[in-house]
Write a structure and sequence with these properties.
11 strands, three-stranded mixed beta sheet, 327 residues, alpha/beta
């Protein structure tokens, strides 16, 4: 896929009300797994159609079948068991999983969902995974001698899933590491673990990083072996871009230009200004505008509106760039 300022999203979308009710009913034993899966597939199809209607270039499945980004995978990885409730954001809680024994992947975890979503559209759909360092940091480790040992073991599991996504046709594979700046002294572990995940991949690789002290791991994070870093910028008023003035940014940049933690909708002009800021550091073919982070905390309507602003802002800046090209 070629083009400039290709638009995308980080991965998760707001779940429709009927699916929220269904997931609650399933957790109470009032709905079967097959009934829930059918509704998750319905919501996935609806989100693929909406993304096409909005005009996004690189799509996602919307994660209608997932709750927390770590707990979802922990439920499917052998060696984990459920832990107690901890707060993740606002009044949202999840059961922090425990690495209780040697981890392994009994079967693919996201591949069928990727295949289903990709079959619904001619546009590329990203494979979406949680990275090994975040899987470690957002879990309790009771099985491995060191955190590095646990991260590298998890990296083998994520590598298997990533390679299966590529075999299934994924041209873009995103391995999210939002915890990568939680312990800056462990950036080397995160880089080593990601190297295991991406070592054999031909697909374009992406890692999403959000909401933390990005300055504490820059420029070391440029050593993360992925093609593209996906960064929340709008929420931080783009101040992390200033770091690139002292040490050049060397990867593709997916730049957050609308804040997913605000109900208020940014104007197209505000979002376009964010794209122009990014163009100071990377060329238009290496800049991917998108919302700051996943949109699962927003309603369906808010999600659609935020994504429309991204698409319209990209159109606006593309037109400006075209005008600058000599006839």
């Amino acid at each position: 896929m070629s083009g400039v300022l290709l638009t995308t999203t980080v991965g998760s979308f707001g779940k429709p009300e009927y699916l929220q009710k269904a997931r609650n009913a399933f957790s109470r034993g009032k709905l079967s797994r097959d009934e829930l899966t059918a509704l998750e597939r319905q919501a996935t199809k609806e989100w693929i159609r909406r993304q096409e209607d909005i005009g996004l270039d690189i799509l996602v499945d919307g994660e209608m079948y997932r709750g927390d980004m770590v707990a979802y995978f922990a439920d499917l990885i052998e060696g984990y068991r459920e832990g107690g409730l901890v707060r993740s954001y606002g009044n949202r809680y999840y059961h922090k999983p425990i690495i209780a024994s040697t981890v392994s992947r009994p079967k693919p975890m996201t591949v069928d969902w990727f295949r289903y979503a990709q079959a619904l559209t001619d546009r590329p759909v990203k494979g979406m995974l949680t990275g090994p360092y975040t899987m470690l940091d957002w879990s309790f480790n009771e099985a491995y001698r060191t955190r590095r040992d646990a991260a590298l073991a998890l990296a083998e599991v994520v590598r298997q899933e990533a390679e299966d996504l590529e075999k299934a046709g994924a041209k873009y594979i995103q391995i999210d590491e939002p915890a990568i700046h939680a312990r800056p002294e462990e950036i080397g572990i995160a880089i080593e673990a990601m190297g295991i995940v991406t070592q054999n991949l031909k697909a374009k690789t992406i890692s999403h990083i959000c909401y933390g002290d990005f300055a504490a791991i820059y420029p070391q994070v440029l050593g993360l072996p992925v093609d593209q870093l996906d960064l929340a910028m709008s929420n931080y008023e783009y101040r992390w871009l200033d770091l690139f003035d002292t040490h050049p940014f060397t990867k593709e940049l997916a730049i957050g230009i609308v804040d997913v933690h605000k109900h208020e909708l940014e104007s197209v002009d505000e979002a376009a200004a964010g794209i122009r800021k990014g163009l100071r550091y990377v060329t238009a073919d290496k800049l991917y505008p998108h919302p700051d982070c996943g949109l699962k905390t927003r309603t369906v309507e808010e999600t659609i509106d935020k994504c429309r602003v991204v698409v319209e802002a990209a159109k606006k800046v593309r037109a400006e760039l075209k005008e600058k090209v000599p006839a």
